Amino acid sequence: MPAERTDAPRRALLYGDSNTCGTDPGPGRGAGGRYGAGTRWPDVLARRLRGRWDICTDALPGRCIPTLDFEWADWVACVRRSAPVDLAAVMLGANDYLSGPRPDAAAVAGRMERFVERLLSGGEGSVGRARVLIIAPPYLDFGDDRFYGRYSTVSGVLSEALRGCARRLGVDFLDAGAWRAPLAPDGIHLTPEGHRVFAENMYRYFLTALPGGDA
């Protein structure tokens, strides 16, 4: 259950993949290269919300929506480290979408729905009465690439599938694809400007959508 605090900051858990981790895909950075803390959107958000919210970030490049036992165990460990939380925000799905033999937004949304149902179940790994937020990932844009072009999500196909999932579950939803945050040439990862745009939109959510967000 969320922390019963009156004067202490509330706590939000951000659970994501490389675009939450802050992966820098630039030449010469190599595997695991990250933007600095002054650029990564979770860190920018944490500074702007200091004193009102504590932001706990758990993000790994390549992470998929937890489905397998080891993935669920990773989630459970994360919840234990971060508890108690007042908001659990999940931005996953891009890697699931890209790893399929063909684009299948409905399959990704189904996987997300089963995951969030477990978060709301009250069992191990659940988040109790914490608010849950599904964030549709930034759009993927591979242009006219002969193979990956069909995996582009500029049309909003993945966002809409995840929106439907959030609606069915009665949880919050944000469409990061609609923010058109600039992407690096790989068509997947946010640029520094993309992180700025992302942080600004997330800050707006905290101020306008959450109880007492403007306190």
Please provide a written account of the structure.
The protein is an alpha/beta fold and 215 residues long. It has a single domain, classed as Rossmann fold (3-Layer(aba) Sandwich). It contains 7 helices and 5 strands, in the order βααβαβααβαβα. Strands 2-1-3-4-5 form a 5-stranded parallel sheet, sandwiched between helices. Strand 4, helix 6 and strand 5 form a beta-alpha-beta unit. The longest helix has 17 residues. It is globular. It starts with 9 loop residues before the first strand and ends in a 7-residue tail after the last helix. 38% of the residues are buried. The model has no long low-confidence stretch (mean pLDDT 92).
Q: Rg, please?
A: 17 Å
Tell me the CATH superfamily.
Answer: SGNH hydrolase
CATH architecture: 3-Layer(aba) Sandwich
Q: What share of residues are in beta strands? A: 5-15%
Kindly report the CATH topology.
Rossmann fold
Give the integer mean of the pLDDT values.
92
**Topology pattern, helix = H, strand = E:** EHHEHEHHEHEH
Helix/sheet category:
alpha/beta
Binned, the helix content reads 25-40%
Strand order of the largest sheet: 2-1-3-4-5
Q: Would you identify the regions where 5 or more consecutive residues have pLDDT less than 50?
A: none
Query: What kind of sheet is the major sheet?
Result: 5 strands, parallel
How many separate helices?
7
Envelope shape: globular
Separation of the first and last Cα atoms: 22 Å
How many structural domains? 1
